[in-house]
Amino acid sequence: MFSKGILLSTTVAVLLTACGNNGGTGSSAISTSHMDAPEKTGAVYRANCVSCHGSDLQGRMGTQTNLQKVGARMTKPEIVEQIKHGGRSMPPQDRLTDEQIEGLAEWLAGKS
User: Fold this and answer.
1) How far is residue 30 from each of residues 11, 42, 62, 68, measured CA to CA in Å?
2) N or C: less crowded end of the chain, CB within 10 Å?
3) With a threshold of 0.85, does the pTM exceed it?
4) Domain ranges in the chain?
């Protein structure tokens, strides 16, 4: 059985991974209720995260990649830390700027 800390780490372990970067060629408008990100943040998400986390944050690689309620499981600082440093199956997202990471974390922390 996983501890809460391991489960949280695993849940976001693939947060915003580069497991299929589409190079930003995805749709410019996602009209689902979960994808209410500000324009720039949505573009970062589509370019770097959609292939693992899905176009509706539903997760495409198992339940641990579902981000629809990630804000109920993790704080903004925890999300920032996970994106920056990775963990378990998620590599660090060192190609994202601090501003991009902050935007993603702010938006995702509101998902509860």
Assistant:
1) 23, 8, 21, 14
2) N
3) no
4) 4-109
